[in-house]
Automatic annotation (TrEMBL):
One of its GO terms (molecular function) is copper ion binding. This is Heavy metal translocating P-type ATPase. Its main location: membrane. Pfam families: E1-E2_ATPase, HMA, Hydrolase.
Amino acid sequence: MEKSEKNLLLVEGMTCSNCALGVTKRLEKRGLKDVDVNFATGEVRFSNSPDITIDVIESDIKSLGYGIKSDGQTSSHSRQLSIEQKFYISLLFSIPLFLHMFVSWAPLHNPMVQLLLCLPVFALGFYHFGKSGWGSLKSGVPNMDVLIFIGATAAFGYSLSGMILHWGEPEVANFLFFETASTIITLVFLGNLIEHRSVKQTTSSIQELTALQVEKANKVCLKNGEETIEEIEAKDIKVGDTLLVRNGDKIPTDGKIKEGSAKIDEAMISGEAESVKKNPGDEVIGGTIVLDGSIKMQALKVGHQTVLSQIIELVKTAQSQKPSIQKLGDKVAGIFVPIVVGISVLTFVVWYFVIGVDFRIAILNAIAVLVISCPCAMGLATPTAVMVGISRAARNGILIKGGQSLEIFAKAKHIVFDKTGTITTGDFSINKIQLYDDRYSEEKVQSIILSLEMYSAHPIAKSILKQLKGKVKMTPLMGIREEKALGMFGQDSEGNQIALGSYKLLKEETVNSHSLYLIENEIIVAGIDLEDEIREHTVETIANFEEAKISTYILSGDKEEKVRAMAEKCGIENYESEQLPEQKLAKIDALNQDGFTVMVGDGINDAPALAKASIGVSLSSATQVAINSAEIVLLNKSSLKSAWDAYNISQHTYLTIKQNLFWAFAYNVVAIPIAAMGFLNPMVAALSMAFSDVIVIGNSIRLRYKNIDK
């Protein structure tokens, strides 16, 4: 089924996941599907709907109090005062207003002076929190700004009415709480400012990957038969252009080397620390760095088609996808504000009507309840941790396609490995050819193998082609076809039926066990022995999974003795040999019934098994990222340790989410009753609230630097 086209809007003004939830609900109510909103990057994605125009969607978002930013334009929203500017303006007026409690300078105690100092701060807060709060109410997901708006307005309104009603009376000071309204607004602006700066750090990997993109390129041009170098904008590169990349330069786009050779640093793409030697004919990736040598390359992909652009897009999309654990936070955050307003009203009623305290004390306790509560902390608990976790994984050459994959991997009970190309490197070579027919020589056998394997997509075939290309000539064959799990078939010029494949081609078991058999008219003419190396860190990785109480398995189509030997070498007790694709699927399905099952494969022949598992983990070269269907892609193919690193990051991300949620719930469960009981004044309450969500974000950012290696 063809996927719906995805649209992207850049939205300004979202401050927390409640904002994102409000936009999501508004657009879903409009009838849009697959809505993903990332409040940190401001990106709103949704499936294209022919019945709903972009203008209508933008109007809906603007009605919630947010701005729309177009490429190359500055929206009206961005021309408004920033949070930083609002904070400093508020601080400027709040300091003298706050000082009146500590100094006896007469002008500061004048009610009119206090009103004039508070008024600019209140006006900023009234517009900022009022607009955001009203938008959240219209979206059906009231946010924290509703509580701040009500609390600050109540303090200001009570002070203003007290000043008017008791003007000129000595006890007028007992009714003035302008410093409370001003301090609440200023402290919340401070909390928002710190939060915004902190949230930016959770998307650092996107910024780092974007920084790899090249702005200029050296194009090789021919003028009057002479070769010249012209500097052009990278965005002007076209497919087919020849580009010169010198020592120390970044490769401007994806392509293939035409001339020269170089050592290239691909660490930011694949996570591999060692540079890679590239020669003519090898593919290179835009954004990687030439460490030694210089090359001329032909551009094959440009713009959004490049691997780097696709990785950036994948990470952005993944960061906006929610794990199931976030549903709890979203549900509570969605009903939190009405509950807090109810508790605040109840607090006032109990203190004023039941206990019988002064109206002033009752209203302050009610305001304290409003401003100490923090629904943002619950909303930020999961997405900030997911963003940092996915960012950290991306920096290590691990692409995780969503928070759901992180959560499932962290809870995995079984992990299944394919043998060839996963546990082993998959770089096969012909070790020995055993001839069974005098008409055939080793060279002829190699020639037929080259001709057949040229049409195969199997990783073994690709490895053999590397060995044979340029060494032997091809044998003309007709009607070449590939049959899954069997091998390659064709017909020579004399009408003989030629087949190349595993022992499954044989009608009877043979005494000699070879990796491949060459068969002519159902008679074995040669046996081919292949050798393959075990991938680096495989034994260590398997041991780590076993120690983590995750059962490990090998599912392979290879013969019993080979799979058994590999399992013993790796320390895996559970293995299945001679597995057809449908048998692999049945085994994974059975494991899925017992718990989350992870399938690790090469992403090509294992595609059905990867799709059947709870999550699929694929070892792929960077050039395969766009077509890979696995939920997790390991770009560092040299070592299986990347699979363990992906699990480790998933584990620690999930732990961070649980820590964040515990703090968010515990803070509100403890803080709201304390405020309701009158132990905190509104200014202290506002300070507590301002930093509660910063603690959640800080704990998430800690994941970026935390040592999680075993």
